[in-house]
Amino acid sequence: MAKSIILMGYMGAGKTTLGKALAKKLERNFCDLDWYIEETTGKTIPEIFAESGEDGFRQIEQAKLHEVAQLPDMVIAVGGGTPCFFDNVDFMNENAITVYLHASVETLIDHIHISNTNRPLIAGKSDDELRDYINESLRKREPFYLKATHILNLQTITLQSQIDDYVEQIIKISNQ
Ligand code: S3P
Fold first, then answer.
1. pTM (2 d.p.)
2. Which amino acid residue places its CA nearest to atom 2 of ligand 1?
3. Closest by CA position to 79, among listed 29, 13, 138, 129
4. Which of 32, 75, 114, 169 has a CA 20 to 30 Å removed from the CA of 23?
């Protein structure tokens, strides 16, 4: 049984896009932790935030992380906040190969604009507000992300060839 590979990083880093492509290439199952939360609770992420607040979401997120960590040979994309609460990042490092997808603030903003994911923490923000929010929260979050075993630096992804190239790089570094 191979260790699962967990992709972590800020909202818009490309965790889901690259995770799906990586899983396909490695012929593994892919799990997006947010999707798993939505499927198993029957609620959307914004609904959970609205009903239980961020604290309630973080409790559910941790419990669901522990569930998906039991599954063998996976590629898992966790949420942007997952590594930054409780002992989640240490737990992930103990149970999987972890890769931090590092991207500039401008790339994160580009990806957030391209994707149509509903993210309660940044909903309704103007570009300037978004930039300030990301700068501020990334400063607090990066120490957790930097605990990942491997780091991959990403540019804005617009082409399939970039996805293929990053997938190859993740395979290479996760074999180290
Ligand atoms: C969050 C990121 C989201 C989701 C939730 C909170 C965060 O996941 O878990 O909206 O705290 O950064 P993505 O990073 O997949 O958007």
1. 0.98
2. 80
3. 13
4. 114
